[in-house]
Amino acid sequence: MEGEQQGQSRVSTTVHSHRRRRLCTTVFLAIVLVIRYHQYAYDTIMATRIRNADLSGYTQSIFLPYVHPFSSEEIPIVQTTVNGIDIDMPVDTGSTGLLIGAPLLPDIDPTEGTKIYHYLTSSTILYIGRLVSVSVTFHGSLGSSAVARVPALIVDESFRCPWYNPKKDTDRCPRGPNGEEAERRDTRKITYMGIGFGRNKAGSGQPNATPGCNPFLNIIYVNGTAVSRGALRSGYIISTRGVDIGLTTANTRGFLFASLEPGVTHREDSRDWAMVRANLSINGKGGRPGYGLVDTGIPQMYIRAEDGVSIPTVMIPNPDPNGTAEEVERVKPGTRIGIGALSSGREQVMEYSFVVGKGASKMEPCFVKEGRQTPPPFVNTGRNFFFGYDVAFDAAGGRFGFRAAMYHVEWPQRNTVVRFLATHVSWSGIRPGMDGL
């Protein structure tokens, strides 16, 4: 009798084990089907949203990997050759134009070019020099290359000028409010490539920030072959993996695009577009449309709320050892910030939120600072935004796109599913003990 009971117990245990295995297999396959269905639905929606831009005829593009892995601490860098000189070039989406210290390009005559200046508000740096046409070769993956011909600002002088006023100060840095002299910078160390758009408004400090000065929009050769009309879609994609120059059906898969408004010089150059429309909320208040900038050039965020919406701030000891002020203002920890991107039809195409100082996501900037309280609302996300989204600028079609970074992680991926099924699943259920399961 006891033997019969033990036998029945073993049979019962085996049956339950098989049932558990079959249940695990069924649940796993159900998850796979649900994920694949949602991805199919997502792709269908994306295709519908961008159906007004047929990219099937555009075949040329090049991928530029970064010199170093993307990080919050450093601006992304790509490999270039400028007038025969190899330069690791920083990529800044928050400005427009190529800046190179004069000592780095000795073949350019000191008297050549048209005098020009450029001011970066986020870094408070003024560049003074001459606009000279140069050839820029971009070195891509697997030996690929692309060549652009653009005017570059050959920097003769540069100053750190925190008190510079872009609306009235031009090619000089005045004395500070307490008679301070500007800090002179070493032009031998200046290399910078702005590939942003919508930065040429009056009073921005970047009067020459036009599409004609954007290296990514002026490609003339790809892999040694002249770019033919209609083969390369003018635009680019920025992600944590690198840069795609030239938009195609394949590399824009998964993007949701917002249509842009014409820029300052759109009549003269149809590739000139205003910054993407965005809305900003502070602790759930606000939301009126303003403008947004996704900026690879800085790790922090700048925000400017609409009238009537206050931004809680605190004063902290200045963390910059070279700073002149003892204390600096920051947005108060615990403040919830919500950000969205809008199409010109006010359709929401991207949104995210975070709590300042919580550190719950890699997308959170290293700090948040309130901008000057002048309309309209504005947000500069800083580069940590790219830990959550890729962005695409379609200069030919006037669109700015967002693609969730997780789009590239098709969990579970097709090869992962096949391998799992081959090594772990039989008709009797899941076989344990493989790959740690």
Characterization of the model:
With 437 residues, the chain is mainly beta. The chain is built from 2 helices and 27 strands. It has 2 domains: 62-259, Cathepsin D, subunit A, domain 1 (Beta Barrel); 276-408, Cathepsin D, subunit A, domain 1 (Beta Barrel), CATH 2.40.70. The strands form 5 sheets. It has a 7-stranded mixed β-sheet with strand order 21-20-15-16-23-17-22, with no helix packed on it. The chain starts with a helix and ends in a 7-residue tail after the last strand. 37% of the residues are buried. It is globular. This is Peptidase A1 domain-containing protein.
Number of domains: 2
Radius of gyration: 26 Å
Helix-strand makeup class: mainly beta
How does CATH name the architecture of the largest domain?
Beta Barrel
Number of helices: 2
CATH topology (fold) name of the largest domain = Cathepsin D, subunit A, domain 1
Percent strand = 35-45%
* Largest sheet features: 7 strands, mixed
Task: Give the termini separation.
Answer: 38 Å
Classified in CATH, the superfamily of the largest domain is: Acid Proteases
- Percent range for helical residues? 10-25%
**Unreliable sequence segments:** 40-51, 409-437
Overall mean pLDDT stands at 85
- How is the largest sheet built, in terms of strand order? 21-20-15-16-23-17-22
The counted number of beta strands is 27
Please report the first level of CATH classification, the CATH class of the largest domain: Mainly Beta
Q: Can you tell me the overall shape? A: globular
Helix and strand pattern:
HEEEEEEEEEEEEEEEEEEEEEEEEEHEE
Protein name: Peptidase A1 domain-containing protein
